[in-house]
Specification:
353 residues; alpha/beta; Glutaredoxin; 6-stranded mixed β-sheet; 55% helix; 8% strand; disordered N terminus; disordered C terminus
Amino acid sequence: MKRAAAFLSMLVLMVFVHAWADTRPAPTPRAILAANPQSAARLSSPKSIGNPQLKWQRLDTVNFAIFFPEDEGPGAVIFADRAEKIRQHVVGELGHDFKIKIKVYLAPDRDAYRELTGGNRKSEWSIGSALAGEDTIVMFSPRGSYREKVHADAAQVFAHELAHVTLFNVLRRQDVPNWLQEGIAQMVARDWSRVDTARLTVAVLADRLIPLSELTGRWPANESEAHLAYAESLSLVLYLRDNLYLTPLLAAIRDGQDTLGALQKTTGLDLSELEKRWHEYLRRKHTWVLLFDEGCLWGFMALLLVLGYFVVRWQRRKQYARLDDPVRRRRKGRHYDDIDDLIDDSKWGDGWY
């Protein structure tokens, strides 16, 4: 019974989360900010990356130098055109421009992507990377996206990564906390879905938010925790923006102040006090009501599932009451000779008891 309760509870939670999934295929994990100095040496010689038989070509636009596999020229041309349009959007969102040509590598498979990004744990599940300080972005090529079954919006991922590179060139600092970088990149890329709303709401209700101190100088390598970290980061950046703190905060950092000093100057709060107020805001906004408002039908189905569990449990207890204790003990020991007519175990499976 304990296993059954745990399984049903998990199933209910999954129903809640999937209730807010987009109609398109679920996106793979979002892009990461990979700062690995060893990657720079590899990137200087793209012909040596991945499969030695793989030949690389270069395509230059006004603002990008795009490296791509020899047999993916048409896709690279389309990508180059869209990259320039996305750049206009990102620069407009951040309000600052810069004149550095950005290198973009289109990896044809996971092995090449892994090598380009330095082979860290995140390279096993991410689909795009901005190499901090190298003005470089790594993504899957159109054919590579097909091979790796990448369903995420390539334009959105590229906007996310380009926001990282742009932000670095605007602020010219490497000590900007990860939660601020990632939150701004998602805001620029419009990277939010109903799944993120559900994920953040569940974390708030369960009191399982990741502390900002753990999202300052590092980032979760675990895929599930990284998803939550992204959701928290965007939520906090939007909180700062809506309270008119974000623009002066970035201006103070650009003028040379460290992030903590800039926070104190623009908000009058230190990081712990800001986090406390943000959590209070989240608790007011992310309630059970929010889950049902955005998915009444799925919420109702979840309630039916919970109700069905308790009905089955009540009926089983009622049936047990008609049995003597020895028979009940035999059931706990997995002996069904006397009660096969009571419950058909083929319908439930061994994991339910």
